[in-house]
Amino acid sequence: MVSEAEKIQKKTSCEHQAECMKMVQLIVDGQASDEQINQFKLNMDTCLPCEKGYELEKCIKETMQLRLEKKCVPSSLIDCIKQKISTL
Ligand SMILES: [Zn+2]
């Protein structure tokens, strides 16, 4: 669990969001290096928009993957995406 103090420390706006979202794309596509992933994870710990963006992209990626494999997409995953979008 994240303590109240840690939550408050997180930035609610990202001054480098365009960069961050590019990195998110690389990570969910499996194109980022370990170093890039580690760096982004550190950033994500302090940056709320980055964390949300990453989780959303990850959910979308999973959904697309399942669609490609012609598997049914669990409604829990769809709910997860809807919920994340609504909190952006
Ligand atoms: Zn950021």
Structure, described:
- With 88 residues, the chain is mainly α.
- It has one domain (16-86).
- It has 5 helices and no strands.
- It has helices spanning 4-9, 17-28, 34-46, 48-68, 75-86.
- The longest helix is centred in the middle third of the chain and has 21 residues, at 48-68.
- It starts with a helix and ends with a helix.
- It binds zinc ion.
- Zinc ion (ZN) binds next to helix 2 and helix 4.
- Zinc ion binds next to helix 2 and helix 4.
Strand content: under 5%
Q: What is the count of distinct domains?
A: 1
Category by helix and strand content? mainly alpha
Shape field: flat
Count of individual beta strands: 0
What composes the largest sheet? none
The molecules bound to the chains, other than polymers, are:
zinc ion
Count of individual helical segments:
5
What is the CA–CA distance across the termini? 22 Å
Unreliable runs, pLDDT <50, ≥5 residues?
A: none
Helix residue percentage: over 70%
Radius of gyration: 14 Å
User: For the residues shown, what is the average pLDDT?
Assistant: 88
Short description:
This protein is mainly α and 88 residues long. It has one domain.
Salient structural properties:
single chain; 88 residues; mainly alpha; 73% helix; flat; binds zinc ion
